[in-house]
Amino acid sequence: MQRIVVRHLSGSKSNQVEEFPLNLFNEIILGRDPSATVKYDPERDDLVSSLHAKISPDPNDASQFIVTDLNSRNGTYLNKQRIVGTAKITPGDVIQLGPGGPEFKFDLEPRPMSTVKSTREAEAGSLGATVPSTRQVDLGTPATRSVSLSTPVSSSSPTGTVGKATVERMISQNIAITKRTEGRRYMMTGGIALAVIVLLFGGVAAYLYLRSTPPPPGPPAAMAPNEIAKSFKNTVVRIDVVWRLTSPDGGLVYQRYDCDGRPCFIEVKAPDGTTVIEPELVYDKQYYVTGNAIGSSVTASGFVISNDGFILTNKHVAFGWESPYTFPKEAERAVLKTLDGKQKAINTREELNWIPSLTKQTVYSYVTENKKSRRIEQRMFNGKNERLDVFFPGATEKNVAQALKPSEIQDVAMIRVNLPGNLPKADPVASTDSIKQGDAVIILGYPVNSPATYGYREDIVTARQAQLVFDPNVNAGNIGRLLQAASAKKRGIYSEIGDVYELAMNSTDAGYDGAPVFDGRGKVIGIVRIEKRLESPIAVAVPIQYGMALTSVGNAK
Hints:
Layout: E1 3-8, E2 17-21, E3 28-31, E4 38-39, E5 53-58, E6 61-69, E7 76-78, E8 81-82, E9 86-89, E10 94-97, E11 103-109, H1 164-212, H2 225-232, E12 236-246, E13 254-256, E14 264-269, E15 275-279, E16 281-282, E17 290-293, E18 295-304, E19 310-313, H3 315-318, E20 333-337, E21 343-347, H4 348-351, E22 363-369, E23 372-378, E24 382-391, E25 399-400, E26 402-406, E27 413-416, E28 440-445, E29 454-459, E30 463-468, E31 473-483, E32 500-504, E33 516-518, E34 524-531, E35 538-543, H5 544-548
Parallel strand pairs: 3-4, 14-20
Antiparallel strand pairs: 1-2, 1-11, 3-5, 5-6, 6-9, 7-8, 7-10, 10-11, 12-18, 12-24, 13-16, 13-17, 14-15, 18-19, 19-27, 20-21, 22-23, 24-25, 26-27, 28-31, 28-33, 29-30, 31-32, 32-35, 33-34, 34-35
């Protein structure tokens, strides 16, 4: 699999190497912005703009590559020469972000057979022998010897007269001076005429070159909702998940339900000394009155981001045990056991934000040996997906997926299905800096409350069997607000639900979780999350750069 290799030569990333598989990256953004593919240090690399430049395949020849300056403040340099707009690059070229800024070498692995070694830049001293400057001839007129006519001469010389030879010599000198002056005038006139001819031909050549060069491609045209649905619906998938919380040996974990017939919760001391509230967990169901095992069933959406089956969705969909837990309806009115041994009624919807895999309590299991029970501490908890199925539009077959990678900072995760051939994929927007309040957006997803549709599948046993067939819904809306996380604190204003776009759309159905949010040009700008922690659910979108960060490889930081 061919990949782009970035070998950093200077700057904060000096001596580092980053690799980007071409099947995962249509372009590589260079800059200090968190959404950049190659992220530079905001303090040490201060000559680099937020979104400085990008590397992408040549739209006219996919086997070639170009570098484009994104209107950076300090410019982009290719082999020491500043570029304007876009320039072609070949393996071995050195790119610099601003004069004195960080440099890196562009490469491809494996290199194409047709790759030509990049032109070596000549040094100033190696341009050949220096041509000596033309010596200027002194055209000054020799001083004419004056003849004093009043000076007495010898008696043998004529008095008061100038000889014929002297007059002829004076005339000859004047003629020579006149010829030299005319020659210089003719030379100057000829030089000016030659310069005019050169400028004229140069202007004509430049005009013909610019006329024959195609203009750089402009931004893609705006697309109507039906065009986006037609172009990208096959990239959007339905995801069905069943997960359970497990102990280290793989056993299921339950919540006690024997506190006056209601669910039991307890206060637990965290390692930092704070007191947290958690459901009272037990490992062996036969010893207690319990509810269902800790876990959940989820129906949601996702979308393909690479031709070989990588899919983005929400973290709480693919890794439910690493996300805030939604308790069943009957668990909302419960009993809390405090550290001082007292009990009181609580409403878990109002007072609890519990992540199962991060529980602070110790759970005990029991092993019977020699007719005696021995108690064993269980401290580490994990989760497992008993089911993680992906359905493509119009297909009746399910595809078993693998949960690959959750985000540590946002509600996004990456899963994968292994299918032959190239899958259709959605492309992320290059930069989210231009997104603003009021922008129109299109959401493609699988709401749970949408009426079911069926198709028929030929089966060896049943001959013909009705099967569910899924087709994504189209939901048009706009960006209601741009909210930012507390870590940003720009202007001192931040959101209680993190760095998201609040969406104005006509549905908050949980089936839209993980769905792609397209802008008006068909680029994905975010991933839907139905926010249920507020008094009334709302739809928000996690910015796409958090999802694309999960695709980074190499030693990128």
